Amino acid sequence: MVTGASAVGALNTIEAMSVQKIVLFYVFTPLADPEAVRLWQHALAEGCGLKGRVIISKDGINATLGGDIDDVKKYVRITKSYEPFKKADIKWSTGQGDDFPRLSVKVRPELVTFTTPDEIKVDADGVIGGGEHLKPGALHKLIEERGDDVVFFDGRNAMEAEIGRFRGAIVPDVETTRDFIDEIESGKYDEYKDRPVVTYCTGGIRCEVLSVLMKNRGFNEVYQLDGGIVRYGETYGNSGLWDGSLYVFDKRMHMEFGSGAESLGSCLECGKRTPKFVNCANESCRQQFLRCEDCTRAGLHPTCGSCVSVGM
Ligand SMILES: [Zn+2]
Ligand SMILES: [Zn+2]
Question: Of which family is this protein a member (predicted)?
């Protein structure tokens, strides 16, 4: 029995050697000593040979890491053995290997930089006073019941929404998460204050904070998509309310929920649909813009729209 099991185990290990996985998770929980957690997380991730980004704050942890499947599993197992992180909801996806340039583990004032570190309060159950969490099925139920009254509110940077978003979503004019406060205080969205507003983002973390900020600023019925677009895509693929590609923060740059997904974005040069962002060739700009693979191969349109218009 033991021999058989370990033989199978060994075989699985060999087969799994080249399988690269990326994990994405966050936990909002009070951490008395973020620096100690940082040291531990750094040693653990490094020891497992992982690369990616981990942010620690007094309010918890936010991590995106990639590596060999067995190493990632080991990292996850040990991370979850720490009581405050036990409930971490780990989102797995398949990487290409070398998805991140390096390992970075840092302590920051906020897990996501909304520049409101004092407005967010957490306890062992997570963020206090956030929007009601809706799992993908519950989201569909809300829409069945409330129909067009339901408003999707994109909690990401506007650029991310260029290649994919929920059908009919409001995409706030934000370049970074820091811009959200001005945006929701601008009055532009006041007409939605008494409607059911569903915030969504990649994995859910930005909405944990954004939904609090919106509620505190007079939005009366705020929900957040539990597990974010990632979980929604796993549940409904391309047959639900999501259109296009999902922008991701690793070398892949985008992912799709099964075949047949078409990006909502268009190549700046030829107009063809593409999910491919590239960096502006102007070193002082480096803004990302959409350019299809054919135009990239042909060396067309090296700079972003703004740099073209100023003759760079
Ligand atoms: Zn093109
Ligand atoms: Zn540019």
Answer: Belongs to the TrhO family.
Closest ligand to the CA of 266? 1
Look at residue 312 and tell me whether its pLDDT is greater than 50: no
pLDDT at res. 88: 95
CA of 292 to the centre of ligand 2 (A): 17
Characterize the bridge pairing of strands 20-28 and 60-68: antiparallel
Among all bound ligands, the one having the nearest atom to the CA of 282 is 2
Number of H helices, E strands in the chain: 10, 17
CA distance 156 to 210: 10
Residue 130 is assigned to a structural domain of this protein: yes
Mean pLDDT of the region 43-71: 97
For the chain, the average pLDDT equals 92
Which residues have a Cβ under 8 Å from the Cβ of 111 and sit 6 or more positions away? 26, 28, 55, 57, 59, 60, 61, 62, 205, 209
Q: Which domain holds residue 102?
A: 20-107
**Spacing, Cα 134 to ligand 1 middle (Å):** 38
Tell me the two tokens of residue 19: 């399988």
Q: Which ligand is nearest to the CA of 280?
A: 2
pLDDT tens string 186-202: 999 999 999 999 999 99
Token pair 């909002």 in the structure block, residue:
28
Rounded to an integer, the average pLDDT of 174-191 is 96
User: Where in the sequence numbering do the catalytic residues fall?
Assistant: 201
**Mean pLDDT on 231-251:** 93
Considering the domain architecture, whether residues 173 and 73 belong to the same structural domain is answered as no
Q: From ligand 1's centre to the CA of 208, what distance in Å?
A: 37
Give 130-140 pLDDT, tens digit per residue: 999 999 999 99
Say if residue 126 is in the same domain as residue 94: no
**What pLDDT sits at residue 252?**
87
Give the CA dihedral 225, 229, 233, 234, nearest 10 degrees.
-70
CB distance 109 to 119 below 8 Å: no
Model pTM score? 0.88
